[in-house]
């Protein structure tokens, strides 16, 4: 594969992967404006974020079997069209309930892009390159929290929050065109895969029974839910506790995302020397230490804006190491049903994220405590799952120094 082709594939797959994060991050600065226009509260508006997470969780399980049965592109076309229509619906809704419903539908459309992009990493690149490709995708995805909230803040201030969803509609159209004209389809559809509920459930169960999958998929999903705690709690934290405006909030969000992006790229360098499971172990321990220290400081009332930024930056750095490696280790044992495996992995991530975001949205008191408790709890639980799950893995498929490696435990 030439460098030009490699770069182009990463760019398209990264755009697909970034569609969901852009849909999450770009409208966050508009929470107060949405609450004002739709005559509700910021906490109620945050339910539209939880609705988006619910839609992604459910939708990923739907698209997994479709991607394996019909190939990657046809279900992807359908998902992107649903996303485009729902994004337009969000722009023209006149009630908070309507916005929540449209966000759920928008998420169901966007998750086709998320599942397809992960599965196509397994289709288009050799297994030994998967962790590296996931890190590169995180670089593209990582641009979304840098660009989306900042642009969203300025767009909301200048044109209103509805303009954000009009821009998202245009993005969906552009990505659909790129997929149609330039993304190759290397995976051969498998007609033997049934779409009946029982075979689908059995297929997911066969994936879930793989010790390496459930250990690293659950570990990664729970650890990654700390990011959802941050995303759900940050609008209230920064705009109501620290009283920043939409533009400043966008720049803060962009700054913090540098930690997530930077660590995911340092990860590609570490993979030349260390195995993915070794990186996950160290990064997750660091994530627990940072989160528990953050919680201690918050409970004692010592938080200031600079201290909060430092802890959030370090926490996101840890996630930048854990997520790509946990994802690669989860999918490594699969080839034939990589679509189902990636869908199940994504559903677990979004399911955990939905749960923690809903819980945080229930606390309407402006405080950092709910967010920090969610971050600390997710990191600690993920480490416990990893320690227990590793005992069940007897033969681990891993990646080391450019070669497929089997690690015996």
TrEMBL record:
Keyword presence, Transmembrane helix: yes
The entry's keywords: Cell membrane, Membrane, Transmembrane, Transmembrane helix, Transport
Transmembrane stretches, start-end: 45-64, 76-94, 100-121, 133-155, 161-183, 213-231, 251-270, 282-303, 309-331, 343-363, 369-389
Topology versus the membrane: Multi-pass membrane protein
SUPFAM superfamilies per record: MFS general substrate transporter
InterPro entries: Efflux_drug-R_Bcr/CmlA (IPR004812), MFS (IPR011701), MFS_dom (IPR020846), MFS_trans_sf (IPR036259)
Keyword Transmembrane: yes
PANTHER family: MAJOR FACILITATOR SUPERFAMILY, POLYAMINE TRANSPORTER 2-RELATED
Entry similarity comment: Belongs to the major facilitator superfamily. Bcr/CmlA family.
Protein name, per record: Multidrug effflux MFS transporter
Organism listed in the record: Spirosoma taeanense
């Amino acid at each position: 594969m030439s460098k030009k082709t490699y770069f182009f594939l990463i760019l398209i797959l990264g755009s697909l992967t970034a569609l969901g994060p852009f849909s999450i991050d770009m409208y966050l600065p508009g929470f107060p404006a949405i609450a004002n226009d739709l005559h509700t509260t910021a906490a109620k508006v945050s339910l539209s974020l939880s609705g988006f997470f619910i839609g992604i969780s459910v939708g990923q399980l739907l698209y997994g079997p479709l991607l394996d049965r019909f190939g990657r592109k046809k279900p992807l076309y359908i998902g992107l069209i649903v996303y485009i229509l729902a994004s337009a619906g969000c722009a023209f809704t006149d009630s908070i309930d309507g916005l929540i419903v449209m966000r759920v539908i928008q998420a169901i459309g966007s998750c086709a892009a998320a599942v397809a992009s992960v599965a196509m990493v397994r289709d288009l690149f050799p297994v030994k390159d998967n962790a590296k490709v996931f890190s590169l995708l995180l670089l593209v995805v990582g641009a979304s929290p840098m660009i989306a909230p900042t642009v969203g803040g300025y767009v909301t201030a200048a044109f209103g929050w509805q303009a954000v969803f009009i821009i998202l509609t245009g993005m969906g159209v552009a990505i659909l065109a790129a997929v149609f004209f330039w993304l190759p389809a290397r995976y051969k559809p498998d007609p033997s895969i049934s779409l009946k509920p029982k075979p689908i459930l059995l297929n997911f169960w066969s994936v879930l029974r793989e010790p390496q999958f459930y250990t690293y998929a659950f570990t990664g999903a729970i650890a990654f839910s700390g990011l959802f705690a941050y995303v759900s709690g940050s609008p209230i934290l920064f705009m109501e506790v620290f009283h920043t405006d939409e533009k400043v909030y966008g720049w803060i969000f962009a700054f913090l995302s540098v930690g997530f992006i930077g660590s995911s790229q340092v990860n590609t360098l570490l993979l030349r020397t260390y195995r993915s499971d070794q990186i996950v172990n160290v990064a997750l321990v660091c994530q627990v230490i940072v989160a528990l220290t953050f919680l201690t400081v918050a409970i004692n009332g010592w938080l200031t804006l600079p201290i909060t930024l430092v802890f959030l930056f370090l926490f996101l750095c840890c996630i930048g190491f854990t997520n790509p490696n946990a994802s690669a280790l989860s999918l490594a044992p699969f080839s034939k049903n990589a679509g189902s495996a990636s869908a199940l992995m994504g559903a677990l991530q979004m399911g955990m994220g939905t749960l923690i975001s809903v819980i945080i949205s229930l606390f309407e008191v402006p405080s950092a405590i709910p967010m920090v408790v969610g971050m600390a709890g997710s990191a600690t639980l993920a480490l416990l799952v990893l320690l227990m799950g590793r005992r069940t893995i007897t033969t681990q498929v891993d990646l080391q120094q450019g070669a497929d490696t089997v690690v015996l435990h």
